């Protein structure tokens, strides 16, 4: 059976579901709601999903509109005026078969209880990072390579291991060399050391004085800042990816770090996942401004180069390290290098975290980043390394944490 592409929207009194079913045999179709679970079948399509809120289940309160392979189902809300949150996060609503017998060790699929459990926690966004010198990092890297058995994690939630040893082609696109053998807490020191050799002061000063170069990027409007109620416009490609990833298992997440902990091990803290997300959003928003909202063939390179997460597999210990890394890399590598532009990008991300539909916009940005990286030669492995996990995780993450992060980031 095929899973149809679908989207959800609402009015004050109704929940609206749009289904793309061009191949459907509607004479054999069935649409049923039972215990807030929707069942739809029209061969060859089948969909089972949990509804985002309570609607009337009887046929008298459901209307259908059919037009050229599209089916619109209009369901009356049980409580008129109730607002259903996060309608763009369609993967979280889909009910998929559980394959417990084939589930890999160390992999779990998060459920709705994850959000409630994490929402009560406050993170220490300004925790003290580890203090390691560049010489220590280089020495440890050489030692690990010599021994040949010590490997260190990277990727979403520090859950990947040994990927670059098996795929030497993927290693070529990283700025971090010998990625499998460099400890996570020492990558930042190596990243900053490499940065010093690439900063070009004449380029920076030229962009500072030639205001016309940076003016279009500074004047570019950002869609989530114009309207606090606006929703992103997901394409069919986006919805297809969300449908495919509905069965994607998340790795076992690290524990939730207490706000009382002053020194944090980034590899063993869930806070690092949020910090990596901020890094990705900064890089994405920078490219959005520079390309004036029309991402181009070089956008994948720009986002990868500005992001410490993507270029150096950094696992950040605190928020100030994320912001510092963004400023340093955005003023060193891309075509436009301007301090005020970086400040505007930070304000944009602050507005994104503040947005009423923050998770929807973040999900949209992650899907766009994934597409741009897949399109750029050699960057396909970032989907497995980060983006697929982030796309699934953001739909199940705690809304409360984003408000706390906003306060710290602002």
Give the strand order, joined by hyphens, for the main sheet: 1-2-7-6
Radius of gyration (Å):
23 Å
What ranges have pLDDT less than 50 throughout 5 or more consecutive residues? 99-117, 141-147
Structural class: alpha+beta
Strand content: 5-15%
For the largest beta-sheet, the strand count, sense and barrel status come to: 4 strands, antiparallel
Number of domains: 2
Mean pLDDT: 86
The DSSP helix count reads: 18
Indicate the overall shape.
globular
Domain CS: 1-88
GO cellular component, one term: nucleoplasm
Family: Belongs to the SHQ1 family.
InterPro entries: CS_dom, HSP20-like_chaperone, Shq1, SHQ1-like_CS, Shq1_C
Descriptive labels:
unfolded protein binding, alpha+beta, Shq1_C, Shq1, 2 domains, four-stranded antiparallel beta sheet, 410 residues, 11% strand, Protein SHQ1 homolog, globular
Q: In short, what is this structure?
A:
This protein is α+β, with helices and mostly antiparallel strands.
Tell me the layout of helices and strands.
Blueprint: E1 5-10, E2 14-20, E3 30-34, E4 37-42, E5 45-50, E6 62-67, E7 70-76, H1 90-93, E8 107-108, H2 113-119, H3 134-147, H4 163-166, H5 168-171, H6 187-196, H7 201-209, H8 211-219, H9 223-226, H10 236-244, E9 250-251, H11 271-290, H12 299-306, H13 308-312, H14 319-330, H15 339-354, H16 358-375, H17 381-394, H18 399-409
Helix pairs in contact: 11-12, 11-14, 11-15, 12-16, 14-15, 15-18, 16-17
Structure notes:
There is one protein chain. By secondary structure, this protein is α+β, with helices and mostly antiparallel strands. The chain has 2 domains: 5-84, Immunoglobulin-like; 158-409, no CATH class. Helix content is 43%, strand content 11%. It contains 18 helices and 9 strands. The protein has helices spanning 90-93, 113-119, 134-147, 163-166, 168-171, 187-196, 201-209, 211-219, 223-226, 236-244, 271-290, 299-306, 308-312, 319-330, 339-354, 358-375, 381-394, 399-409, and strands at 5-10, 14-20, 30-34, 37-42, 45-50, 62-67, 70-76, 107-108, 250-251. The strands form 3 sheets. It has a 4-stranded antiparallel sheet with strand order 1-2-7-6. Strands 3-4-5 form a 3-stranded antiparallel sheet, with no helix packed on it. A hairpin with a 2-residue loop joins strand 4 (37-42) and strand 5. It is globular and about 70 Å long. The termini are far apart. Residues 99-117 and 141-147 have low confidence and may be disordered.
